Amino acid sequence: MRLKLERRDAASRWATVAAPLIALGLAILTSLILFAALGKPAGQALYSLLLEPFDGWYNISELLLKMGPLMLIAQGLAIGFRTNVFNIGAEGQLIIGAICASALPIYFPTATSVWMLPAMIGLGAAGGAVWAGLAAGLRTRFNANEILVTLMLTLIATQVLNYLLLGPWKDPHGFNFPQSVMFPDVALLPILLPGTRVNISLLAALIASGLAYVIMRHRFSGYQLLVGGLAPRAARYAGFSESRAVWMSLILGGLAAGFAGACEVAGPLGQLQRSVSTGYGYSAIIVAYLGGLNPLGIMVSAFLMAALFIGGDNAMVSADLPVAAVFVFQGLLLVYYLGSLTFIRHRITFNGMGRA
Amino acid sequence: MTILAFILAGTLAAATPMLLAALGELIVERSGVLNLGIEGMMALGAAIGFVVTYHTHNPYLGFAAAALGGIILSLVFAILALALTANQVAAGLAIGVLGQGVSSLLGKPLESQTLNAPDKLPIPGLADLPLIGPVFDQDVVVYLTLILAVVLWAVLNHSKLGLIIRAVGESPGAARAIGFPVVRIRLGAIAFGGALAGMAGAYASTIYTPLWADGMIAGRGWIAVALVVFGTWQAGRIVFGALLFGALSLGGLIGQAAGVALPSQVLASVPYVVTIFMLAVISSNRRRMRLNTVASLGQSFSG
Known about the structure:
The structure holds two protein chains of two kinds. By secondary structure, chain A is mostly helical. Helix content of chain A is 69%, strand content 3%.
């Protein structure tokens, strides 16, 4: 007798929600064991990771601050993932976006124009799109695998950032820290919730999510992207082109990541620093998958991942956990999610016993 | 030692971690599976190898433990990709994140600690040659990796096992029909790839640069994945590719020696830029790619 997986005709709706929840439960259990094995206070660590982010207005506001870029980038990436275009270099696109946006306030530190901020955001988004567009061009023109190219472009972007911050863009009065000058007020995003660091870029992320939902749900291009990824030959017969899907996925993903990068330097950072790259681009890949590559699901999973980021910072202090614990937890989440997805899309049957 | 000899000898050592990991991935991909978690498996192997060698002073134990760590992580991938037929790209990214996270966690207490690099093993006669002598004065892993490349070439192209692996990769349905256990062969290939990636990481952290720094693999696992494409799934060409990247990653040292006044970040970026360039050049020959690529690469198979 053999176990066999049989594809279900349609996954039930509750099951789509169940997969990330099952994954969350299993990831919590595994990390509990792992932290205990490392001799860390496991209970304290989990409290810090999972509950403390919701404890008090300050924590919640910081959570909202981190949710914005995660949500925005994941929405962009999901467009590509749905069509099997794997942009895994959002981190690099975010860095380039932050660099392009920073150029204006760094070269015009005394500017007072109200156009400063829109120009920065525009430049940042364009920079991210160009960085991703390189991968699209190499894929469509030279057949180069976009997974490897976007990843390599991220490694290069990190070096560009290091070069600028250690060299030409280093603040001469910054005590030799690798960071730029502080931006003038006109280069900073207005605060959305008074008394917190949450700025209006959160609205942009929410609007982008709404747009992504509408596009996927009602517009033809959503269908077109879906077909292009799932059945390329069928898509070609129907007159859709693979290269258009590649370009669209990567450009939209790059725009979103570049926009997010610009909002980081114009928002909570207020200058260009190395810490602009804290892994949002990589985490957004997991956010996109946990959200089932669905715009609404991504809003929920971005909230969850933001909580995890805040929790990780807390656990570093309260449970002496290195920041890597967050990445371990993220990895576990994705592993368990992909595993439980199978049980939703398939039923298990025993060979020779026919359909249950 | 002359600069030329230094570059030649250094190239081999620098190429070794990438080559070792790429040879593992070659077998995995030839069986039809795409495991993108190499970077994570190398990071995990690097941390385990360093921690074990640091505490036991036994580099062999460090390598064995790193191989075991790579195997365990690759089996997590195998469960997702083979048993649960998950998307292989996503599954590879998942274990990549997990491996890098666990690596930082394990290495944290030993940040910036160093190890004594093991003694080199000069080949009698050859190591005394003028000019190129240092090329034959390497650690044992360098020799073994080159021997492994030859063995894997022979196995893949001239043995029954190689034929079965290739058959499974080219047409899993047909291979299954004539009685080959497709899933078990792929499982074996994945575990083999995991072991080599783990040891590649251990070589990087305990022999090549015997110092623990978080994130020390720095993209070399991804370059290994790219090397398999550059080598168009042929062991011999992968060796050449690895040597090229070994030389490139010495770029900083060579640049300094030659008195080039470029910022270190430019030199550090060279291997990444060349990876993109080579990918474009080699992939653009679509006919040759179609001829050499593994037909079922990355596709789930349930049977």
